[in-house]
Design a protein that fits this description.
Blueprint lengths: L20 H35 L16 E4 L4 E4 L4 E5 L1 E5 L11 E8 L11 E6 L3 H7 E2 L4 E3 L2 E4 L7 E8 L6 E6 L1 E3 L1 H13 L8
Parallel strand pairs: 2-12
Antiparallel strand pairs: 1-4, 2-3, 3-9, 4-8, 5-6, 5-10, 7-8, 10-11
């Protein structure tokens, strides 16, 4: 007679169990949350930062305006009064129109000039002379503009006796649909004697030694 032996509980390693279907789905969902969600959040943050950076760009210039338009005006230092030996005189005036960067530009309008006594006191009213140059016509504008000095040349001829003792010039540019620009400067008077002295000093300079 064979007796059946009861071996008792087994203490060896338990065989691996295949997870049930519901447990497998739970595991896959957890993995997706830990891998896909951070990537989606990073993409959202990146797109948001790009949007913020693009919206913070400085705006362009306002339509219809330019930094190269005339903003100020000055009378060139080379402007002067030339007294001729025949008793006539020429007021040589050069006017610079400048943009916001202080560079010369061309302009449109009527350039009004006034020759007067410096300080406008005493006999200033009796010695005042006015003239103007219309710069609205493109051809006249181009003729008045000197490309070398990049100024508008506006000369005036008059008798030497009509030149103020201390002459000054005031220039005003009246522009269409824009504020007027103005500038003022004292003028140097060049007498014929001054030219003779300059010529004599020039003749007194010894010529350069020629090479042997």
């Amino acid at each position: 007679m064979i007796r059946r032996l009861d071996r008792g509980p087994s203490f060896g390693p338990a065989p691996a169990k295949t997870p049930a279907k519901s447990s497998l789905l739970t595991w896959m969902n957890a993995r997706l949350r830990t891998t896909v969600a951070p990537a989606v959040m990073a993409a959202a943050v990146l797109s948001g930062s790009v949007a913020c950076s693009s919206s913070s760009r400085p705006a362009g210039p306002t339509p219809g305006t330019s930094r190269y338009q005339p903003r100020t005006m000055e009378i060139h230092p080379l402007s002067h009064v030339h007294i001729r030996p025949d008793g006539s005189a020429v007021v040589e005036v050069a006017v610079s129109v400048l943009d916001v960067d202080g560079l010369p530009v061309r302009a449109e309008g009527v350039l009004k000039m006034e020759l007067h006594q410096r300080g406008r006191f005493g006999d200033a009213i009796m010695e005042r002379r006015t003239w103007q140059r219309d710069l609205r016509d493109p051809a006249d504008n181009l003729r008045a503009f000197d490309p070398t000095t990049r100024t508008y040349r506006v000369p005036l001829g008059l008798a030497a006796e009509d030149v103020p003792r201390s002459p000054a010039i005031t220039a005003t540019l009246v522009r269409p649909a824009a504020a007027a620009l103005s500038a003022e400067r004292s003028l140097e008077v060049l007498e014929p004697a001054d030219e003779a002295v300059d010529a004599a000093e020039s003749d007194a300079i010894p010529p350069a030694d020629s090479p042997d």
